[in-house]
Please model this.
Amino acid sequence: MTEQNKTQSVLEKIKSFAIGYIGAAIFAMGTTYFEAQSSYHVPRILSPIYDVFGNIGLAIGMVLLGAGLMYWAAKRFLKVQQGKAGLMIGILAFFIIANYGLIWLNNRDKPETPGTIAKKTEAAVQGAERPELDSPEANAYLDKMENLLITMQTAKKSNDATAIEKTEQQYGALIEELSTIIPVLSKTSTYRDFILYNANITGKINQLRGIK
Model:
């Protein structure tokens, strides 16, 4: 191999590594966009897809684009370095892992994403227990909500249309009652626990009502 050919071979390898790194970066970032983020780095070529299909479309587009670039990089590399497919696969895998590390470092001190916050909130609601409250009105309200849940479960099991209609009326009255309790309770330290437990009971009631 002449000196010129060697130089050309080295340049092709460098180009293939550069393309592979860019592809790995796009691929790694794309896989994180399946969950809603507070902001996105949108490649210009994928802007129309993001505008129409949102973060899921962007995620799929980036994964495919990144994979395509890595495949192209591998083909360029193997043209000048035949029989070294394993080496290129290892390099691309390293690029992907390195980019995941960079993403983690960049996001470590950033606020949580809306998707993560939603999951944590849902878990807090599902695990909520009835709090001890100083407000007689709030305690009475929760008693009524718990009793309504039991009454509604019984009415649904027996398929009693009259009883179901009555529970709907009771539920509407309790919503009005809640609107008078919240302004007072919001000034106390137990407000968060009250809201979480109320959301827990309300969620179960709404499931019986066919609302998720």
Q: What stands out?
A: The mean pLDDT is 84.
